[in-house]
């Protein structure tokens, strides 16, 4: 039998991981757009 605290911890961990991945992806997209602009303007 699993204790509710563990599942709560897992849910929090999953949420944090998803947020981190989302942040990383949006930062990557911004960097990609910036480099594209630099290449186009030069």
Give descriptors for this structure.
42 residues; mainly alpha
Major sheet description: none
Termini Cα gap: 63 Å
Give the helix tally.
1
What is the residue-mean pLDDT, rounded to a whole number? 92
Please state roughly what percent of the residues sit in beta strands, choosing from under 5%, 5-15%, 15-25%, 25-35%, 35-45% or over 45%: under 5%
- DSSP strand count: 0
Structural class: mainly alpha
Low-confidence stretches: none
Gyration radius (Cα, Å) is: 18 Å
SSE order in H/E notation?
Answer: H
Shape type: rod-shaped
Helix proportion of residues, in percent? over 70%
Please describe what this structure looks like.
The mean pLDDT is 92. The longest helix is centred in the middle third of the chain and has 38 residues. This protein has 1 helix and no strands. It has 42 residues and is an all-alpha fold. 0% of the residues are buried.
Summarize this, please?
This protein is mainly α. It has one helix and no strands.
Topology diagram in text:
Blueprint: H1 4-41
